[in-house]
Design goal:
Order of helices and strands: EEEEEEEEEEE
Mean pLDDT: 97
Shape: elongated
Oligomer: single chain
Number of helices: 0
Radius of gyration: 14 Å
Largest sheet: 7 strands, mixed
Structural class: mainly beta
């Protein structure tokens, strides 16, 4: 069964750092864009950062200069290094990936189960 498994969330003081990891497992032919989204209570899910297979990145304005996304294609993994965390970064963070399961299929979106990040002031 194909799945995205996240790890690395937790509780941190304002100004601190956390590193999120996400690994894709199962029978996967190829992976296109990978990224991180977050959803705070009462708010819509929003894009935090994304990275293509070639390493091109995209960040939301709210995290530019503080967060860094990276990936390891051989490990089918994506990472999010979060520095200078602020209380407004508190949310459930979801891993997202566009996966092709067969050589003759298209890319479809998959989501992780989410990991809680809480930043205390």
């Amino acid at each position: 069964q194909v799945q995205l498994v996240e790890s690395g969330g937790g509780l941190v003081q304002a100004g601190g750092s956390l590193r999120l990891s996400c690994a894709a497992s199962g029978s996967i032919f190829s992976i296109n864009v990978m990224g991180w989204y977050r959803q705070a209570p009462g708010k819509q899910r929003e894009l935090v950062a994304a990275i293509t297979y070639a390493g091109n990145t995209n960040y939301s304005d709210s995290v530019k200069g503080r967060f860094t996304i990276s990936r390891d294609n051989a490990k089918k993994s994506v990472y999010l290094q979060m520095n200078s965390l602020q209380p407004e970064d508190t949310a459930v963070y979801y891993c997202h990936a566009e996966l092709k399961l067969r050589y003759d299929s298209g890319y479809f979106p998959y989501w992780g189960q989410g990991t809680q990040v809480t930043v205390a002031s």
